[in-house]
Amino acid sequence: MLRSSDAPPAVPARTYALSLTEMQAAAARGGHPQPRLLHGCESEQFSESIGLGSNGALVPWGSQELITLSDDLMLVRSDVTSTELCGGRDAAFEIDTRGWLYLHFRLDGISIDCFPDGSSRTVGGGSFLVGASSRPTSFTRQVLSDAWQAVTVAFRPSDSFQSLPVTDSMLPSELRRFRAGDPDIDFLYASPFTADMRSAAGALVRPMVSGGMRPFYLKAKAVELVCLAVEQVGRPAPQTDAPLQLSYRDVRALEEAKRLVDNATENYSLEQLARRVGINRRKLALGFKILFGETVGEYRRDVRLELARRLLEDRTTSVTYAATVAGYSDVGSFGKAFKAKFGWLPSQSRPAGSRHARSPKSNASPISE
Fold first, then answer.
1. How far is residue 367's CA from residue 252's CA, in Å, rounded to a whole number?
2. CA 299/CA 262 separation, integer angstroms
3. For the chain, how far is it from start to end, CA to CA, in angstroms?
């Protein structure tokens, strides 16, 4: 059983430096940008696997690509899965975004991001960050999950940025000053995805266009994301859940809780589930939503509705029995929930393969300050 821990995550054994300016220069030369070790002892296994690929290079545990789309526009695509993603959870990256408008769109993965002012955020999938800094400051990111699917777009405040179809009145004062070249700006905005952002970021992670048209496609999608994000930051940042710090051990406990819900033959209460995985009730409730995009109750409901759908597709199960399996005592309530998730009534279910469930909904609360 995993034990509960309310203490802040352990200080990483190693910290590596990543500079957007250095990354762009290396990519422009067709080189392979390699993070520099700042603190701690080098890990040979880790140092062989952390470099960002360029020009579509594959890494041992997935795909990472750094693309210079123009002198002032850079794109980083990541779709990786590995327990060595961040040095076995004892390494962190210090990322220098000075001189760039930094836009990070997270489809999957969880990290703790720490900023120069001492604040930190637990960031999960379905979120985006916008940063603009003219100061020689960096933020530190420690990855806590084995999966990492993200798109980063970096944009200089150049003529191209000036030509974006966004008026100054739509921007916070810090971004207006950054746009004008003010040397004393340090701005951060964090928010859940919009549906349009999720679509554009997903298209960049796994582009459908190849060959000679691919660079044009990637640049168009990157600019689309820039426009969507810059417009969004002109609105008040949404309220997030109460502050929460997750450690690597907490993430493993939350994943174990998800596995128990997936395979449960009994209806665990939140308190019972928290005891089973060795994590406190508050951290289970908030952390589950950050990591998986739904509350425990919402996820349990979806798992049971999916089981009911499979039973009904076999044509050997009555709607009443399927409702019972899904945890509903009232067939009418089951029918409403079923239609809301799949788009049709239980009585309209057909054999497997003739209908498809709707895509999972996006994360409702991916960011915790």
1. 18
2. 9
3. 28
Q: What is the CATH number of domain 14-232?
A: 2.60.120.10
Residue 342 is predicted with a pLDDT of 82
The domain defined by 248-368 folds into Arc Repressor Mutant, subunit A (1.10.10)
Positive or negative, the CA dihedral 249, 253, 258, 262 is: positive
What are 13's two structure tokens? Answer: 């054994």
Whether residue 64 contacts residue 150, with contact meaning beta carbons closer than 8 Å, is answered with no
| Residues forming a β-bridge with 112 | 122, 142
Among 189, 77, 52, 187, CA closest to 127? 189
Tokens 């991001």, residue? 113
Which residues in the chain land under pLDDT 50? 1-9, 45-49, 54-60, 87, 241, 352-365
DSSP class of 361: P
Cα 48 to Cα 297: distance, rounded to the nearest angstrom: 42
User: Can you give the residue ranges of every domain in the chain?
Assistant: 14-232, 248-368
What is the per-residue pLDDT across 84-123, written as a single tens digit (0 to 9) for each?
555 455 678 889 998 888 999 999 888 888 887 777 788 8
CA distance to 57, 265, 270, 291, per residue, from 278 (Å): 40, 20, 12, 17
Instruction: Write down the number of H helices and E strands in the chain.
Output: 12, 14
Secondary structure letter of residue 14 according to DSSP: E
- Give pLDDT, residue 167: 67
Helix (H) or strand (E) run with residue 283 in it: helix 281-292
Fold agreement between 14-232 and 248-368: no
